[in-house]
């Protein structure tokens, strides 16, 4: 991935992605000139916001980044508001920046300010490796995408092209670790979607010529098994039964054999404890367990995740899992519970049409055809919460590598061209009935 990113930078810098622009209007060429003129400022802006720690649990840092963006949006005549989350949620707030009008498609542009790197992380600073690549905590996921949103809109504003257009730029402060309850943390995003026609998400790009028309949803699941505590010499007899660990093993084995295999459906048991006593701390994801080899296990507990491409697929999988859990071994009982997290962003005809329009823009910019990315290779994202209300497209952010790791990089050469692509796409959408 690192080599591919470097090669892309070289292609861009030596003009293989330069513009012939035969299919661009005079106005669109002016937009591109504005993007080019602002590109060095965009890189400087990215460095500034990357160097402000905004881990999901650092609400103060998230707001500090938000205020930097808020000032920038105020400077291009957007109406802005900072939305605080309740203190007990322990999550940063959201920034919404809006223009109002009735011209063309009404757009919702989605980003997020939080990163996976908390204040105690050793990975804190933007550092150039060379002219094209920088190590940057959250620079790729997804402050780079946030910068693309801002500077694409800035180019349109400088050319007087946002008049009478409705655009809502929504930046959440807790995408990497969503605040609960979702009815509060995603309320404003969903309300914005209901007022819009199209949503564009700027999560990290999966490839220079890929975009996302479908993302899998995610759900948590938990199985708790109770057995009969007894001397191990009595295991398997009628009075003692199988014990909690054998019952948990049966359940997980049946999940593997009977639920696995459907396209786009995956489920992962992430943490497991079993013994006489056991518990898993949700805040730390650490388990504590006590047991002895000569005592039949009384308790077993597993927590996992479920990924799915549609609500129907999710519910079918849950139904199968419930049925398996109900078929208990002797002297054991088990229960399963599910917790919704991100809904699925299913592939739709409207999403495909958006991708076709993006691809047309890319071809007109001499950047090549854009194709749909495999949804099985993408995680969940904020756009999933609103995909049932609007046509949606995601993965429009920066190129880079190793997101969520201390080796995360952002491709600086990709920012200008991807900002151009975004600016022209927005311009065409707000001028389309």
Search tags:
alpha+beta; Alpha-Beta Plaits; 6-stranded mixed beta sheet; 22% strand; disordered N terminus; 4-stranded antiparallel beta sheet; 2 domains
Describe this structure in words.
The chain has 433 residues and is an alpha+beta fold. The protein has 2 domains: 2-215 and 345-429, Aminopeptidase; 222-342, Alpha-Beta Plaits (2-Layer Sandwich). Helices cover 35% and strands 22% of the residues. The protein contains 10 helices and 18 strands. The strands form 5 sheets. Strands 1-2-6-3-7-16 form a 6-stranded mixed β-sheet, with helices on both faces. Helix 1 packs across helix 10 (412-429) and helix 7 packs antiparallel against helix 8. The chain is elongated. It starts with a helix and ends with a helix. The relative contact order is 0.19. Mean pLDDT is 94; it is low at 1-19.
Task: Offer a concise description of the structure.
The protein is α+β, with helices and mostly antiparallel strands and 433 residues long. The protein contains 10 helices and 18 strands.
Q: What order do the helices and strands come in, and which of them pair?
A:
Layout: H1 2-13, H2 26-50, H3 59-74, E1 79-83, E2 94-99, E3 107-112, E4 127-128, E5 133-135, H4 139-158, E6 167-172, H5 182-185, H6 187-194, E7 198-201, E8 210-211, E9 217-226, H7 244-259, E10 266-275, E11 277-281, E12 286-290, E13 299-308, H8 311-326, E14 333-342, H9 349-364, E15 371-372, E16 391-393, E17 400-401, E18 409-411, H10 412-429
Parallel strand pairs: 3-6, 3-7, 7-16, 8-15
Antiparallel strand pairs: 1-2, 2-6, 4-5, 5-18, 9-13, 9-14, 10-13, 11-12, 17-18
Helix pairs in contact: 1-10, 2-4, 2-10, 4-10, 7-8, 9-10
């Amino acid at each position: 991935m690192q080599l591919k990113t470097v090669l892309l930078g070289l292609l861009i810098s030596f003009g293989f992605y330069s513009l012939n622009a035969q299919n661009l209007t005079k106005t669109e060429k002016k937009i591109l000139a504005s993007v080019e003129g602002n590109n060095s400022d965009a890189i400087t802006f990215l460095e500034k916001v990357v160097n402000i720690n905004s881990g999901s649990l650092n609400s103060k840092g998230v707001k500090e980044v938000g205020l930097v963006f808020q000032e920038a949006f105020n400077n291009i005549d957007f109406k802005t508001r900072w939305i605080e989350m309740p203190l007990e949620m322990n999550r940063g707030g959201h920034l919404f920046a809006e223009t109002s009008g009735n011209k063309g498609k009404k757009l919702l542009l989605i980003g997020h300010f939080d990163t996976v790197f908390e204040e105690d992380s050793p990975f804190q600073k933007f550092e150039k490796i060379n002219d094209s690549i920088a190590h940057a905590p959250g620079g790729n996921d997804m402050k780079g995408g946030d910068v693309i949103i801002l500077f694409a809109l800035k180019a349109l504003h400088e050319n007087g092209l946002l008049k009478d257009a409705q655009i809502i730029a929504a930046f959440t402060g807790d995408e990497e670790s969503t605040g609960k309850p979702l009815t509060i943390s995603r309320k404003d995003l969903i309300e914005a979607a209901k007022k819009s026609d199209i949503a564009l998400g700027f999560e990290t790009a999966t490839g220079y010529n890929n975009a996302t028309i479908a993302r899998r949803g995610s759900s948590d699941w938990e199985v708790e098994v109770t057995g009969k505590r007894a001397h191990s010499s009595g295991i398997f007899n009628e009075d003692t039964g199988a014990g909690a660990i054998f019952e948990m093993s049966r359940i997980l084995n049946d999940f593997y054999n009977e639920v696995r295999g459907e396209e786009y459906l995956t489920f992962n048991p992430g943490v497991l404890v079993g013994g006489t006593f056991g518990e898993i701390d949700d805040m730390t994801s650490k388990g504590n367990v006590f047991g002895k080899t000569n005592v039949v296990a009384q308790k077993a507990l597993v927590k996992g995740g479920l990924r799915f491409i549609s609500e129907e697929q999710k519910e079918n999988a849950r139904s199968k899992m419930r049925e398996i859990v109900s078929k208990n071994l002797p002297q054991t009982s088990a229960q399963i519970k599910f917790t919704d997290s991100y809904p699925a962003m299913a592939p739709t005809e409207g999403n495909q049409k958006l991708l076709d329009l993006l691809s047309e823009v890319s071809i007109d910019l001499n950047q090549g055809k854009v194709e749909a990315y495999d949804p099985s290779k993408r995680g969940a994202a904020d756009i999933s919460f609103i995909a049932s209300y609007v046509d949606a497209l995601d993965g429009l952010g920066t190129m880079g590598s190793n997101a969520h790791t201390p080796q995360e990089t952002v491709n600086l050469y990709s920012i200008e061209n991807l900002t151009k692509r975004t600016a022209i796409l927005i311009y065409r959408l707000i001028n389309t009935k």
